User: Fold these one by one.
Assistant:
Number 1:
Amino acid sequence: MARQNGILRKHGFTLIELLVVIAIIAVLIALLLPAVQQAREAARRTQCKNNLKQLGLAIHNYHDTNLVFPPAYVNAVAAGDLNVSGFAVRLLPYIDQGPLYNLYNSSVPVTDQPGSYDAAACAANLVVVRTQLAAWKCPSSAAPELSTPVIPAGALATGFPATTLTVPYARGDYCLTSGVRKAYSLYTYNGGISGKRNGAFAVAGSGGSVRSFKDITDGSSNTICVGERTGSTTMYVKQTPTTNPAIVGPSNINAVTNGVGWGDFLIGENWTMGTNNDATTSTVTVSGVTDDGGPCAINCTNARGSYHSFHVGGAHFLMVDGAVRFVSENVAAPNFGGSLTAFMGETTSVVD
């Protein structure tokens, strides 16, 4: 403020100066915002990696206690029986969730239609599987925290289930590896067919078994046992939700049987067949052998049989030895497919 000729004058910004300052601030924000977003995603990615490390430690502790890996899931002994339980429940005591494990009753299924089963025990199991567990959720995921598959009566087989099932599951963004099949098997073995569930973990129950470290003859550092796959009844193409019937299936059946939560036994059944880049499948021929599927196994879709994350460029995978690796979505099929199997004799491996 100055006095000239007895007149008090106020000095301030002119309109042009104000606009210049605003423009400079806008440019600085535009430069800083991507850096802030990248820093946040880096932190989320680190937490996601740590989640898998925690699950890997739990698997090793389970093996130390039981001398075998947990079964991928325990299949029902009788045809039409709903009592199928997944491997994640067995890991609860090893991720500091002992009270939750004690609440679960393995003699009854997770169902809102108990029938002849004990209704109170079934209700307790429902409480367990809809409990949110940080170790099972990737912070980068955009999927809902809770998914509620509605499986119509007779949707899975004639007369099965007998009534419509509605089960809410807390999200689970990691799944087991069941091996390779169909088109992805052709890509992996150059036309050879591997139709077995030859992943690190086996299905127990009716005709099933369990595996241990001695069964991982391809090497524990070369074999994947758990990978990222966004758990949700929302189906994605890349990172965009889709309602394409070719992907979600007739009457949405693929979505509701997608293995949507950590307590859903279907996260133990992820048998990789691959898709096209648009998440659809087609008939492919490799070395004269034809089957269905596609060449993409990472980040094209979260449909069961693929792996999926909201990270740029790939997804995290837990090796049997406990290491966690970030695998590119462009990884060669022989390398990735070979790492999904535990005893096929491959010498190749995925790399960071």
Number 2:
Amino acid sequence: MEDLQALVGQWVTCIRVSNYPEALTKGKKYQILSVKADSDLIRIKGDNSRHRWYSTFSFDLSGADAILLQEVHLDDPIHNPNSDCIEVTLKFSDGSLRWCLCATPTHFLHHIENGIQPKPKEQDGLEWTVFQFLGHNLKTKSGMDFMSFNIPHLVMFSHLSEDTIWSTMKHLDDQGELEASSLPYKNTSIQEDSE
């Protein structure tokens, strides 16, 4: 464990709010008031004006700016809020892009019971149909057929809407979990339009 005493008086950046959403804000800088000997705890004054001990796990000790979620774009229309699976693009403050799937459990049940079904898509006035392949049909040693899913970039919802998706993505970002729940777009970032 590094010597944290040297950090007293320095400013650190919150990178996850953990169990303290009323006291910490991701991306906000906080001054270290003291450190607890032989631990990873630092004392700061939170947004609620209370002084308390927090784990260094929630902070970038260098004080660098945190990368924050800025936008959530639904790449597909939601046809049925209670049974659907859509792709979502996430834009961050450093210009990077990530994506994930947002789905309901009933969509997967329908997929298991009925197999791959066509899904209408539309973008920029163009319409087409795609087939979403989400799992594998497998067979056990005893000969039983079954389907399995392993989708690390999938976030499950009881109900899909723009609001539920934004709220969930913001919560995952605040907890430092959004990177693990999404995949990066390769060599892509949004460039500001200079025209």
Number 3:
Amino acid sequence: MSTLVIRLADNLPDTDRNRQAAETAYERLAATGWTPIGGYPGSDVHWEVECNLCGWTGNMFYSHMRRDDRHGHPKRHRGCVALATRGEALAAWLQTQPTAEPGEETPATVRAERVAAEGEARAAHVEVETGPPKTPGPRAKRAASESAGTDRSTPRVPAGPKAAGNRIRVQKRTGRTGGQPVTVTVIHVNCACRIGAATLVGEFADVPAADRAAGKAARGTGQPPAHCGKSAALV
């Protein structure tokens, strides 16, 4: 396998200046918890990216992403993890990303290549489509809205009785921010996140039980429990 290749958007000229700008942008995204899906399009053009803190995908302006907000945190999208735990969540994610020697791959670079390849495959599929796209009718739009929810960027985990197939877990993990240890308690509902035995608090029959266990586990940490951004609805 090869190391991550800096990619430019198809409509961006391949010049030394654009290459340097793209390299700076890729480094900023890697340091602030983003994975680029498309090639670098320029500073003030929408760039399709994935948030590594909650799993959201969408378009962002790099001119916004390269600046910190008024709280000193890298700017995020609407519906990302709560501001109170955003710095800790980023620090915890960065702790999982090993530093690579020159020419060596890390899981983050491998994942970025995979996401980029998937984006190219989607783009190629769109290019071979023939005929105008079909416009969904009112009934289809209403069904899609009810199925997807009103805000795709904000994960919702409805509580209710346990049904067969639900997997509800609580994780307590420790990272570092500003040189200080930070402990975060996270509730995972029907997600595929890998949780080691050392950080798993337990598995639970329903969300209320998981909430109670997470609240107990979070005592003394100074951080309220949070829901995993990749959680799915109960079945």
Number 4:
Amino acid sequence: MVIVRAGDEVDAVFVRTERFNALIDTLGTPELCRTALDLLEEKAEARALIVVNSHMDWDHFWGNAAIAGRAPIIAHAAALDRLRDPTTQQVLTDKAGEESRFRDVDIIGPDITFSGSMVLNGGDLTREIVCHADFAPYNVATVDHEAVGIIDFDTAHPAPRLWDLAYAVYRWAPLSDPANPAVVFGLDEQLRRAEIFCSAYGATVEERRRLPKMICRRLQALVDFMLASAAAGDETFAEDVSAGDARLYLNDIGYVGMHRDRLWKALF
């Protein structure tokens, strides 16, 4: 897997599998996308390319013209509604007036759409597309207590849907130690909310069985990423680690592990 950075704009993700290559998002312009593909040519190893638009913010799909006709572009069916919105063209018109690099952008939609979830089987790697990776209350917009939108897709990436479900349940229950002053629910209420979330999501019996362990794995991966980023000089993560965020997640791993049996019982 290769993260393709485009300055301050959104990253793209390149994944090489046994059967094909996948590019998650095409960056903000066709030129940027072509540059990324040229840089990735050696890693591509002549495999067929599949492109996934995680969503329809401009810096995720305006590079589609560099792909059109060369590879299938896949997106959720909801993307079509976003493309048909008159503001989509207006954003392009405005940005093209501000920066010449956007004047070569053509709005190209997906060739293939899906509803619900979709699985890409790469042989040695299978990914259910696409995880938001930070589906939490602070990333959901509401009106009159009803969810009307999801924001902050910067960490969206290909992964099993249980990976996303685990972090979402952790955040929405939330499965955090009530000893933390910021946690307002006790264990009983957390377990009740976890079950409500899983039922509304449509979690399978197998997903519920694996959920406690996956929550711990997901949090450990987050801690590892934070510590590595801080060590590499990322100031934001260094501040987070200094503030005790990594320690809090490690504490919650212990909390979930301690109450694993009760969480299982609540979920079934």
